[in-house]
Design goal:
The protein is α/β, with parallel strands linked by helices and 340 residues long. The chain has 11 helices and 17 strands. This is Zinc-binding dehydrogenase.
Length: 340
């Protein structure tokens, strides 16, 4: 089968490999769609400490069951499934508290074991969700990043309240759509790229560049400010500006991993009782809700997402890295498809 292997900073190699071996409790999935995540772009650039080459990345995916282990049940060969790539141990104290996303021994498909930037991938059956065979596989591949957004919003946004989002990349645009589904009356999205801000506007957001944010914040929220900000970028500029702009007693939800260490105005955080909340992946309930939103047709990827093949993927990563990519989201179709 064809696989795309991360070999080091800015090095992706398309090569051949044997199909995965089927282990007990697992299924072999013929991958139809695998999204490129911002964290994988960081890996491509050599900025990810958890992605160690050589590695087949790819943790946002949908496909069709090709083969199942004899002890596996609940599905049939030929079923279309979405896969939750997070594999908790199920026995540590974090898992016992219902927080598998911060399991002390967690594994993630595409990080700790081969991922879906390949024609076939092996996955635990317990991590699969059945969807209709005629569901758009590219849309279905958004379940994992959508679950990330649902988890972040639950940590900081109250229903029917306004929200500010840093970043109009895939996570920012999906967070926007989740917030609107939760009844947020106004959502302000901040980004430096006009094309991405245009995507946000078409999805129903107010939009601004960072230099306009003070005036825009005042006008959008009628001078009352905002109690929840979600940072989907994660660099010094966005973290510091969020701390300065959030209402006293408000929450800044930190999702983006753009920089590891940043100096922040922590005395201001203390004096204003600002809550800084890290948000990592999702719970099983978050993932199920993401699947349901997609099945219901509540999430759109029109205009801001497109597809490519495995052979095209290295050039797509390069374009995303240098800022020349035309779309916010790229989904790889390892077994073919209509690419745009």
């Amino acid at each position: 089968m064809d696989i795309l292997v991360y070999q080091g900073a800015r090095r992706l190699e398309l090569t051949r490999s044997e199909r995965p071996h089927l282990l007990p409790g697992e299924a072999i999935i013929r991958v139809e769609a695998a999204g490129i995540c911002g964290s994988e772009l960081e890996g491509y650039l050599g900025h990810s400490s958890v992605r160690v080459p050589p590695l087949v990345m790819g943790h946002e995916f949908c496909g069709v069951i090709e083969e199942m282990a004899p002890d596996a049940s609940g599905f049939q060969v030929g079923d279309k499934v979405i896969v939750n790539p997070l594999i908790p141990c199920g026995s540590c104290d974090r898992c016992d508290r219902g927080r598998p996303n911060i399991c002390r021994n967690r594994q993630i498909i595409g990080i700790h074991r081969p991922g879906a930037f390949a024609q076939y991938v092996a996955v635990p059956v317990k991590n699969m969700y059945n969807v209709a065979g005629d569901m758009d596989s590219n849309l279905a591949s958004l379940a994992e990043p959508l679950a990330v957004c649902i988890h972040a919003i639950k940590l900081g946004l109250q229903p029917f309240e306004g929200l500010m989002i840093y970043g109009a990349g895939p996570i920012g645009l999906l967070t926007l759509q989740v917030a609107l589904n939760m009844g947020a009356p106004k959502v302000l999205v901040i980004d430096r790229q006009p094309e991405r801000l245009a995507f946000a506007k078409r999805l129903g957001a107010e939009a601004a560049i960072p230099e306009e944010v003070h005036e825009k914040l005042a006008s959008v929220f009628s001078g009352h400010g905002v109690d929840a900000i979600i940072d989907c970028v994660g660099v010094l500029a966005t973290r510091e500006q969020a701390i300065q702009l959030i209402n006293p007693g408000g929450s800044v939800i930190l999702v983006g991993l753009g920089q590891d260490q940043t100096a922040l105005s922590m005395n201001h955080v203390v004096r204003q009782e600002v809550s800084l909340i890290g948000s990592y992946t999702y719970s099983n309930a978050d993932f199920e809700q993401a699947v349901n939103l997609l099945v219901q047709g509540s999430i759109s990827m029109s205009d801001w997402a497109t597809t490519c093949g495995l052979a095209e993927a290295p050039s797509v990563f390069a374009a995303l890295a240098d800022g020349s990519a035309k779309f916010s989201k790229y989904v790889i179709n390892p077994n073919g498809g209509n690419h745009t």
